[in-house]
Amino acid sequence: MRRTMFVALFATGLLASMVRPALALNVSPDTGMNMVAGNVYALHADAGWMYVGGKISAIRDQSNVDRCGADNLVRFDESTGVGDCTFTPTLPGAYVHGIAVMGGFAYVGGDFGLLRVSVSTGTVDPTFTPNVGNVVHTVLAAPDGSGVYIGGAFQRVNGIKRASLAFVDTSGALGAWDPGADNVVRRLRWSPGGYIVASGSFEFVGGHFDQSVAEIDPDGSVHAGFSADIAEVGAMTCFDTAPTASVIYAACGQKHNFMAAFDATTGARLWRKGLGGNGASIVLTSVGGNQTLFVGGHFGTRSPTSMPCGSIYLHGVLKADPADGTIDCSWDPHLIPDTNNFTGGWVEELANGHLWLGGKFGKIDADKHHGIARWTL
């Protein structure tokens, strides 16, 4: 097994990067958008809508007035940022953690397991009733529309053993996909290579050592040649990844907090940068013709001084160079509250030249942005 042990020097990783010139991107989010009453844990863009899940009780206007009630799942017009008060499904459970839209339905995961909602009527489909015995954290649609891959904290689906990973077809039947993880799966992402990248708090997937990040084929086989070079064995969580054909970028936390880049073939560490709190989300996109990483987390929101960057502090979201992880200290949106906020910038989604951020925040700098914000790239 290819694995390089190294000593993670948190302070060095956090402070060593030199500041580079900022790309042309406003620090302040777009104005005039609606907000939510509550916290956002899931985002998914489809057909001009941004589906928003979490612990949400209402859609609010920019004046902080509730426009309509909600039950943890809403959607916004992606171009205008206005919430759709005709789409207000009634859901069981306390929160939504994963969303994937496919074939006219939003497949939704949360503490209730897995269900689906008609995107045209906003009603829960009573014919789709898979029995998932615990939390579903992430939902990923199959490209052929045959069903969804799910990850979470469950051990059985429809009464059959499935350890934190499963495939459920559009009828609600359990599929054969069964790689099996030894602990919680937080996020599933498609790689351009046609395989799935799983991230979470596991050490083994399919019997193969894969600390917190694993590559899995649609047939359930695990890439044995890949093993992410993460020294903290056990008690470690990678919450999200941004895979490319050659590199997997990861946002991680728990035992140590960091963002990192790994070779997509071997898992060799290309770079790693310490964070002042969990790295919870990560996306890769182009800004001004330059490839750019955006990372969210509770760095700088668990404590306002936990994420120093040059002569300032960052709070809940940052921008970095994917080549070496250098952080752009001049792009510094300030998520508030910035004390004892262990959610911060929790989830990100890219759509139509926009960066969407969801999490636990009431303001960004001086402006109200309850739970959700958007930047035009």
Describe this structure in words.
It is built from 1 helix and 32 strands. It has 377 residues and is an all-beta fold. The longest helix is centred in the N-terminal third of the chain and has 6 residues, at 10-15. The protein is globular. The strands form 11 sheets. Strands 1, 2, 3 and 4 form a 4-stranded antiparallel sheet that branches. Strands 18-19-20-21 form a 4-stranded antiparallel sheet. Strand 6 and strand 7 (113-118) form a beta hairpin. The protein is 2% helix and 45% strand. The protein has a domain at 36-178: 7 Propeller (Methylamine Dehydrogenase, Chain H).
Which helices and strands, and how do they pair?
Blueprint: H1 10-15, E1 35-46, E2 49-60, E3 66-69, E4 73-77, E5 96-102, E6 105-110, E7 113-118, E8 136-141, E9 147-152, E10 156-157, E11 160-161, E12 165-169, E13 185-190, E14 196-200, E15 204-205, E16 208-209, E17 213-216, E18 236-243, E19 247-254, E20 258-263, E21 269-274, E22 279-287, E23 290-297, E24 308-309, E25 312-313, E26 317-320, E27 335-336, E28 345-351, E29 354-359, E30 363-364, E31 367-368, E32 372-376
